[in-house]
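A reminder before we start the practical. When you read a complex entry, don't treat the lines as separate problems. The point of joint prediction is that each chain is placed relative to the others, so the output describes one connected object in space. Small molecules and nucleic acid strands, if listed, are placed in the same frame. In the example below there are two entries. Take a minute to note the order of the lines before looking further.
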Amino acid sequence: MTNQVIEPISEKMKNLDELICFFKKSSDYHHFSPIHKEDEIEISYYRTLVNQETLNQYVIPVFQYVEGKHPQLEDLMRHLPFNDMELTTDLATIEKKITGGFIMIRLLKNRSKVLMVNVRDNKSGYRQSNETDNEFSVIGPKIGFVENLDTNIGLIRHKLTDSRAVFKEITIGNMSKTRVCLLYLEGITNPEYVNTAIQRLESFSLDVVFDSSLVDQIISDNGNSPFPQFLSTERVDRVTFAVINGQVAILADGSPYVFTGPSSLNDFFISPEDYYMPWVVGSFFRIIRLLGVVFSLFASAMYVALMTYHFEVIPDGLIGPLISARAFVPFTPLLEVIFLEITIEVLREAGARLPTKIGSTLGVVGGIVIGQAAVEAALTSNILLIIVALSALTSFTTPIFKMSNTVRLLRFPIILAAACWGGLGILIMFILILGHLMKLESLGSPYLAPFYPTRPKYWADTIIRPSYRWTWKRNGTIRPIQDVRYVPKSQENPDHEK
Amino acid sequence: MRYTLDKKVTIYPLLFFFLIHGSQTGVGMLNFSMVLMRGAEQDSWVTLLLCGILFSLLLLMFFYLVTQAPKGDIMSLHTSIFGKTIGRVLNSLLYLYFIMVLVFYLRTYVNIIQIWVFPYTPIWLWCLIILLTAMYMVAGGFRVVVGMNFWGVLFPSLLILIFFYPFKFASLTELLPLFNHNLKEYWISLKLSLPLFAGIEMFLVYAPFVSIHKHNKRVGIAAIVYTTLLYVLIFIFSVAYFDVDFLSIIEWPTLKLSKTISFRLIERFEYIYVFTWLIVIIGPLCLALWSSSRIFMQEYKAKSHAIVYITTGIVFILCSSIQSPKHLELLEQMVNTTVLSFLFIYLPLLFVVCWIRQQTMKRHNKSQSNIG
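Here is the predicted structure of the whole assembly.
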């Protein structure tokens, strides 16, 4: 049964003519003889897949040239100016190549042998450029990946002019036959990760690969975790940075998102912009981001715990404003917080689904009008409004969208635990998350590295962004084969050492 | 040479520090300075130092015991010395010992929660949620258990820094006069402070998971030194802040000490302490749960997850059945006596037996080789 689904149609066909008859059912399939006289050559292809211009300019003239000379397929092969050509009699190969944008050339004299020529149109229907709108940075390159795999590989190759960069290609999807590429640096990336990744890529099947995130989810170590185990990005510099540090990158055709791994939790809170600013400023922003995540996770839960159980902890000066703000609110703190948090989530979701122009208007309407009205209607207190708005805002500081989703999701169980068991509930949730993170692995490498398993040697580029004088070594927790990235100037220059 | 497991499951040598130190800290740290007032009063810091030395010797002894065991842990040592039947009985007793320790750790912490934060919530609820958390960790394997000990040392260390806050109200002259107690009072203090340092006996179970490194012993002793310093520091702070007379009547002096801390945003700092102490307590809790499950697993060759669940169930029933403070006190006395007799009577005896066995084996080998 399962085999029947995946089996190509050519298995059922007896000969090539039958297969061509089947192809002809489709209106965009062309099958004709370019030379009317004697009808000795016929070509066929999917009009929508091949590049018409190339066909007219380079293929048809060859036919005209050989007209009347009774050419063999080998002669044609010599005259055609293409490199991706193949002589074959195998029906399955023919079917695969025709649907992949090849043209089939057949002689009437020898009806079973055909010449397949690649004239696939690689560019049509694709964006030619992409600004990194979703992972914006003020400083730094703004070019992002597009849907076309070859363009993406080119973008990386332009940045990484090194022959050690190897792209390994695998085809996934029995209907889409998507090309998936794995990039690594020979002699730097640990081959263990390359093997694991390839093994996992080969061991699953899909019908259509819509986006690289499908592959990402399927080859993840723990598919039930809310945490993303691969870092997916549309920035070329990010992928390059990951690869030169000894990670592998996986690209899929038709997806502007490339994912890299093995990644650790810390990688998700690093923005490439940190490296484009002076290290002091970069470190400052990184710390702000990390504090933002902590605030986003625990602030509203703490409000619930404090207002429900531990109001003794609030000092005298603060308890007055808090109580007067809540005096007319008829709900328990939990309901109040959940109401506001859900409102913010709904606003975010609506903003994400709507066209950009309406979305920004909605943000203003939702944020200001609903917030203000909710306070005036005594549905929530204005202090809580500040806390919830801030924690929504801080969750967006996370540079990787998938991780910021995780942060926003994890807030809810923490709030519920805080409502049930107060401060102890928050701590229990914190410990559970910590335990989960310690169990988690990305491509077999620990997720919480270098904090746990503890490697203080590699703590430098985690919470702060150190100066380039200190980051000349690769992160050893992912065990690269060669750990020196570059030689810092102070070491190279003998005068400096004196 | 000590037997260790495959390199994939053993832990990094540095983490041994956190295991030893993590297993030594517990709820006792919050209350010990008041308890010590029954003995040598302000001079009890001497006995704390003495405890550090004694436990360092004990750790060295453990290292010897472990090298003598065929499988690198106390279970295999028992069976190799006493034979299968007696070994099994001893291992089962050890399993019960760890369950008792587990119940004690958990119940004392729940006691603090009940006294300080939630007086009306039933005990079983706290026991259940903390045990479920610990069970989740232990089900993740030894690596996660070690990790919990690691974080349990790291996070609260930041809290200890805040202890310098009440120091400006303290006067160190409270520690004077020095050495005005007789030996009997020191003896009482010593007996009271020894159980505080207990927990390192779990090393006898997890030893095969600690990879061999030339600094193993040094790291372990450094952890004990750190524990000792921590206890001495807190003791000195408590005595210098409260005086001896007052300290002998107040409960939970370490938490009371933290009450003096207040910021613009947080009043009643002891709440933070009580909650954060969960991270401290969950480390040894997980370790004890893991150790007891490991003993059972090794002895009866059972599946590990089921054993963890069963052990958790037993601990839960025992913990929630201890309701009144009187029972808790009884439990504390029982645990203290058992721990002391296990650490300072049984294990040294085992050490002597081991040593004699090794000597006779050596002689035997020598005589055999002479004959040959």
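Discuss with your neighbour: The domain at 15-347 of chain B is CATH 1.20.1740.10 (Amino acid/polyamine transporter I). What might explain this?
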